[in-house]
């Protein structure tokens, strides 16, 4: 596992005895800093994505944490083997972090400050601004919300918004994830269908990531095969069947009229959207 020394901004690799680290959860944007970019100090500083790395490291030091992990630059994505291992380990890496910083780059810090100082009419203003963030629409950020013990939310200008604990009611309303799960209850206390429902309205840039981003939620592993398209989600369900004796996996509903009228289709769902109405199903 590669970590950034938050003081020196140098990347160091750890095989065992991984030190405490902070971890960043964010939406990818333009000009992210790759592993190769990061090793070139003059180049990385020119990338738009470097600022959130710098802010992450600064915050980590303020929180007494020496190291930080950011997916854009701590994984060598030119190596398919390394990328596959990282994606299969991602949930655990977030789970093991001492602190997770959720960077909501479309939330205005001034709105947060105004709400706190009483200029804006009450806390509902900044709760509403959080709910509208695209961070809550991305596939990967679901596990990044659930896995860490401590998540701290920050605005575009790195104004502190709140913690997972202090915002737990709002987070439940926005994501549909139960407050018990957000507080650290085991995922196996929730049915497979319910966990799929959490991802029903989330999107990923690559079709395969719809499945790959859910592996940690279901505690399964499988090889990455970018290019397989929708087959990835079918493979995910096959791995879930092997791992879990939970027939709620079959409690889905076709999401379009054409699918509902199809004369024949398989027993497995085609996307998490087909679990959108799978409420209150117990394991």
How would you describe this protein?
The protein has 283 residues and is an alpha/beta fold. The chain has 2 domains: 2-186, no CATH class; 192-275, no CATH class. The chain has helices at 35-38, 41-44, 50-62, 71-74, 80-96, 109-117, 124-131, 141-146, 168-175, 179-182, 192-198, 209-212, 231-243, 257-260; strands at 2-5, 11-13, 21-25, 67-69, 99-103, 151-154, 160-163. The longest helix is centred in the N-terminal third of the chain and has 17 residues, at 80-96. The mean pLDDT is 92. InterPro entries: DUF8212 (IPR058525), HET (IPR010730).
Blueprint of the fold:
Blueprint: E1 2-5, E2 11-13, E3 21-25, H1 35-38, H2 41-44, H3 50-62, E4 67-69, H4 71-74, H5 80-96, E5 99-103, H6 109-117, H7 124-131, H8 141-146, E6 151-154, E7 160-163, H9 168-175, H10 179-182, H11 192-198, H12 209-212, H13 231-243, H14 257-260
Parallel strand pairs: 3-4, 3-5, 5-6
Antiparallel strand pairs: 1-2, 1-4, 6-7
């Amino acid at each position: 596992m590669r970590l950034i020394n938050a003081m020196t901004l140098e990347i160091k690799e750890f095989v065992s005895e991984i030190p405490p680290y902070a971890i960043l959860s964010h939406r990818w944007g333009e000009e992210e800093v790759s592993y190769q970019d990061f090793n070139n100090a003059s180049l990385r500083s020119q990338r738009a994505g470097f600022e959130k790395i710098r802010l992450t490291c600064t915050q980590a030091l303020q929180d007494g944490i020496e190291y930080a992990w950011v997916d854009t630059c701590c994984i060598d994505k030119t190596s398919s083997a390394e990328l596959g291992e990282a994606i299969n380990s991602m949930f655990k890496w977030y789970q093991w972090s001492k602190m997770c910083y959720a960077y909501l780059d479309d939330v205005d810090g001034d709105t947060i400050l105004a709400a706190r100082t009483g200029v804006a009419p009450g806390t509902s203003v900044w709760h509403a601004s959080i709910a509208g963030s695209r961070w809550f629409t991305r596939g990967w950020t679901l596990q990044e919300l659930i896995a860490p013990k401590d998540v701290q939310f920050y605005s575009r200008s790195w104004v502190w918004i709140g913690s997972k604990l202090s915002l737990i009611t709002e987070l439940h309303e926005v994501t549909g994830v139960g407050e018990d799960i957000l507080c650290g209850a085991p995922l196996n206390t929730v049915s497979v269908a319910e966990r799929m429902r959490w991802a029903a309205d989330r999107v990923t840039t690559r079709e395969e990531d719809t499945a790959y981003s859910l592996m940690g939620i279901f505690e399964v592993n499988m090889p990455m095969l970018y290019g397989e398209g929708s087959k990835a989600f079918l493979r995910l369900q096959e791995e879930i069947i092997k791992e879990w004796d939970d027939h709620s996996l079959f409690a889905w509903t076709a999401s379009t009229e054409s699918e509902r009228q199809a004369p024949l289709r398989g027993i497995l769902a085609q996307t998490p959207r087909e679990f959108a109405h799978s409420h209150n199903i117990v394991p």
